[in-house]
Amino acid sequence: MVVPFFDQHWHAQSSSSLSWSLAVLLVSLAGALWTWSRTTSKAKIGAATAPACPPELLKDDLQGGVANAYTFEREITVPFDIGDTKVSKILVHPIKSCRGTSVTESRYSPEGLENDRRWCIIEAESHAIITAREVSKMVLITPHIEVDSAAPHGGRLVVSFPEDSDCETFSVPLHPSQDTVSDWPIIDDCTMFGKYLVQGYVCAALEPEGRSPSEVLSDYFGRSVHLVMKGPRVRPCGPTEAFPELKASAVFQDGYPFLVASEESLEEVGRVISRFAQDETPQGHIGGIDRSRWRDGGVNIERFRPNIVVKGSGVPFAEDMWRQIVIRPVEPTEGSDETRTFTLVSKCTRCLLPNVDTTTGVRDAAVPYKVLMKFRTGKDPARKSKACFGCNAVVGGEGVVRVGDRIEVKEWATGIGV
Fold this sequence. Notes:
The chain contains seven helices and 20 strands. By secondary structure, it is α+β, with helices and mostly antiparallel strands. Strands 2-1-15-14-18-17-16-20 form an eight-stranded mixed beta sheet. The chain has a four-stranded antiparallel beta sheet with strand order 5-11-10-9. Strands 4-3-19 form a three-stranded antiparallel beta sheet, with no helix packed on it.
């Protein structure tokens, strides 16, 4: 009798071999099912996902060694309780890449906080917008808004410099009239990142005597530059992966009108910096890190140049998972939910700018950029190789935001964020 191959093979196996084969088969099947479930869960935009890392365990994930702490992509069950989350800080940066000002309240429009990035500094010849990425000492230039409703221009923007720069303080009109700007040169091709063309006026000083803003700034930069105020032509924002039909505009911000970040995220970054500074193993090596300087991990939020900082959720990077938030005043005021609703359109990918110390103007060789690259890449679907911190946002109307205002999540994104 001819015995089929399968039967021959089957009868040749010992009972222990059969048990081992069955175990391998079951493990393989379980692995395939787990992979399939992970893939399908990510495809459901806005749906809650399995808690690969529940929020309450996020603070403990460095116990197994800092180098491998964030090796695996983590998902969080959404929604989760954000507690009593409130606005803890508001930062306005009148001149792009120059020092920001912390305020207790600010008016806002769909183009951003009032007077935020309304001005920038450009190369006189190429019209390229200059940032502290290239000239780190820009962060030591201090713009200050002085509002005066009785003044002809509603107040002034006062610009001062470090004492050792030998550059004198000057001021420009806060809201120059149309007659005033008609005498200012207008530049239609202020260039940002080689793709945005933004219109702007070359500013003149309020005081007729003395040097012009362009002359003072050129002295500080060591080359010919201009101070420019945003012109009337609308500067559209680009679409995002989550919002391909996005209709929004901005002034001289990098990409979008608002940047939202949380203190919990900053604390987590500081904690990871501290662990890397103390980890002397080859796996934990970060080139150029000053271990003594960063042993305690302290890094201030101003380096990241957000507009609205929140605190209270207890979860690092909770803002990654908010698609829409409503910022409600402590005291009831006029205004609709639409004008208070901020849509977080994408994560903010980071460059080397946060490495610049806002108090000294010196750029660090490693922190925080190289540390962020260890655990905050792959978060933005359009630019997975970039590290992320904070979220870009747009708003549905005009209003006022104040420190102490409450945050409500109106719509959630997925467990891995927008």
